[in-house]
Amino acid sequence: MPERAASMAQVFDRTAQHHGARVFLRDKRDKVWHDHSWTAISEAAGRLRAGLIRLGIKPGDRVAILSDNSPQWVIVDQAVLGLGATTVPLYTTSNIEETRHVLSDSGARIVAANGPEMVKKILGMAGSIPEVGGVIAVHYGAEPQGASNGSPPVMTLASASGDLAAGITEGSRDDLATIIYTSGTTGPSKGVMLTHGNLLANCEDALKVLGLNETDSILSFLPVAHSFERTAGYYTVMMGGGTIAYAEGLTQIAANLQEIRPTIVLTVPRLLEVIYGRVKKGVESSPAIRRAIFNAAIATGAKAAEYRHRGRPLPPHLALMMPLYRKLVFKRIVDIFGGRVRYMISGGAPLPVEINRMLAAAEIPIVEGYGLTETSPIVSVNLHGMNRIGTVGRPLPHVETKTAADGELLVRGPTVMKGYYHREDETRATIDPDGWLHTGDIAQIDAEGYIKITDRKKEIIVLSGGKNISPANLETRLATDSYISQVCVIGDRRKHLAALIVPNLENLADFLKQNQLAAQAPEEIVKAPAVKQLFQDRIHEFNKPLSDVEKIAEFTLLPRPWTQEAGELTPSLKMRRKVVQEHCKDQIESMYRE
Q1: Is the pLDDT of residue 185 over 50?
Q2: What is the mean pLDDT of residues 473-502?
Q3: Quick check: 176 and 60 in contact, CB under 8 A?
Q4: Taken in order 177, 181, 183, 186, is the CA torsion positive or negative?
């Protein structure tokens, strides 16, 4: 039995030696997929490690990575980890103020930047990040440039690397591996300190329960700077010896899924909502007979999924009908994801039950999980044959969970962070003396251990009449409307609820054409009486089953979607509620004006 790995770098080193010339990473350049073997990535990381040592980087120093998902990200990460230093991931979508905050707070000494714009971004803030002594431009075709006007020198990956590869340091599971700055929905980001032991424990548990191996492949499109993609989509796949292909970008995901045909897909609800909306729109515009067949297929598939999710064989009548519906309906949905997926894991935010049920009915192997950056990140996940729609599954083998008196979910185990970087008070406020991490999420845990997240502790709306309302529950349900792209429910300390709604203009195309609005700008479309009436009717239907205090009394249509660049969305596409409400304060006040 192999000796237990002491660091993530040691896992990579062992796996690379075992697989050698096999393909580890793939990226697409000039319309062609390029393969990178385990040996090639390992040797490149070793040479860069030698270069970092020459530049004076020591164990414990911080090296930041500003890059989209790419082989270079892995090369830099493994070079740094193998040196005993600490990686600090940066989001390419973060604004300058946030990037400066992370670099300054972490004290990063080197920044690896992928792309001319990313290099320019770092050089532009040079005067305010004095600890940064150099920039490594890791993109293809990069050119070195000397220091000037107080800016650090720019090296290329080649010029920063040594001629010979440096080996990895011994390391310990207690060593700090990374500082990941949380994309919190409020306040400045905090650096979450994760050790090699934290990450290894999470990967080992995930590998065990999911059964990932060297035959698996993943299309990586969520930002690897985020803990979900970093641990589940990179480290766990690496530990299992699988292959990682990097998507060209969000707009090319659909095409890349067809090209790579992955066996593992990590996603967030927002992307599935888009797919769900397109499928639903296609069905609604179909002839009556096709709509009837689709609805019958989903109803039958949903019943079959109930048996499958409990590991039970299908009764004869379902087993007889499913082959027909696979051919007539489900194959088209399965093919959207490449046709080979054996695990699709949704995390980062609650997955609407309607979307989960449709995908499960079509035999898409969708499961929902839950985690936080502070827990490395996976806490729980549903598994095939043990799936409960509406829950986030059961905890990983070495993770403990319970609820506090107020319903807050508490987590304890080897995956819980070391603490917040330079924030001892906030660390003590989050991790109690018994080692329980307070998640801030309200949850229910049933007798079998399945966890259901019901709300955020600090995002409860309290109406002026004293009634408590969960905005997240309403938003999740509203988001399944094919005409709604984004929604924010408001009403704290107000007399009733209201909603900010970003319409899905793509799905509204036929309606706009019928009402001679197709040529109008979004600012004019949201003001059009016909559009307002359409949404009024849909909100009226949405309100029917709700109690009076839960009903959406007013709404405002917004012409532009919320974005990461404007600070309104986190990198995992979750809404920053306070930022959205601040940016839309005039529209909010107009809805509550007498």
Answers
A1: no
A2: 91
A3: yes
A4: positive
Inter-residue contact 24 to 235 (CB < 8 Å): no
Q: Tell me which of 262-266, 321-325, 560-564 is least confident.
A: 560-564
Residues 86, 75: Cα–Cα separation, whole Å: 14
Taking alpha carbons only, the member of 58, 72, 62 closest to residue 25 is 72
Q: 353-361 and 269-284 helices cross at what angle (nearest 10)?
A: 70
Interatomic CA distance for residues 592 and 594, integer angstroms:
6
CB 46 within 8 A of CB 79: yes
pTM exceeds 0.70 for this model: yes
Average confidence score pLDDT of the chain: 93
Q: 322 pLDDT band (50/70/90 cuts)?
A: very high
In the predicted structure, residue 444 carries a pLDDT above the cut 70:
yes
Give the pLDDT confidence of 536-594 residue by residue, as tens digits: 999 999 999 888 888 999 999 999 999 988 889 988 788 888 899 999 999 999 999 85
Q: Of the candidates 133, 160, 162, 157, which has an alpha carbon nearest to the alpha carbon of residue 50?
A: 162
In the numeric block, the tokens 């949850």 are attached to 443
Q: Write down how long the chain is.
A: 594
What is the C-alpha radius of gyration for the chain, rounded to an integer number of angstroms? Answer: 25
Helices (H), 62-210: 71-83, 96-106, 116-123, 157-160, 196-210
CA distance 25 to 113: 19
Residues 6+ apart with CB under 8 A from 359: 272, 333, 344, 366
The rounded distance, in Å, linking the Cα atoms of 539 and 535 is: 6
Q: What share of the chain is helix, strand, coil (3-state, %, to 5)?
A: 40, 20, 40
Sign of CA pseudo-dihedral 375, 99, 246, 50: negative
pLDDT, greater one: 572 or 112 = 112
